[in-house]
Design brief:
By secondary structure, the chain is an alpha+beta fold. The protein is 31% helix and 36% strand. The chain has one domain: Alpha-Beta Plaits (2-Layer Sandwich), CATH 3.30.70. It has three helices and four strands.
């Protein structure tokens, strides 16, 4: 299994949209084969090192993760995140 974690900094003009971005992530849950679990949420600490939004997913295999990248359910979510983010970082590891 693969755990995929992404942290996003959201552009100031879109920060009010963060609750909807979280809903967009959860809208993928149960709709993509091989995506076993998904959690997303807005940062509550707002420290100097905080990112605004986190996405944590678990895939049953590397192949499922690769298929997710081009899956039609993921594409509009991915497109919107590219529009609203100022930065992102990711970490992917086997579990």
């Amino acid at each position: 299994m693969l755990r995929h974690i992404v942290l996003f900094k959201i552009k100031d003009a879109y920060k009010a949209e963060i609750p909807q971005l979280v809903k967009n992530f959860y809208g993928m849950k149960g709709k993509i084969e091989g995506l076993l679990d998904l959690e997303a949420g807005q940062d509550v600490l707002h420290s100097d090192r905080s990112y605004d939004l986190a996405l944590v997913t678990v895939f049953d295999s590397m192949e499922s993760f690769q298929a997710y990248q081009t899956h039609p359910v993921h594409q509009p979510v991915r497109k919107r995140m590219h529009e609203v983010r100022s930065a992102s970082v990711a970490c992917d590891f086997l579990i």
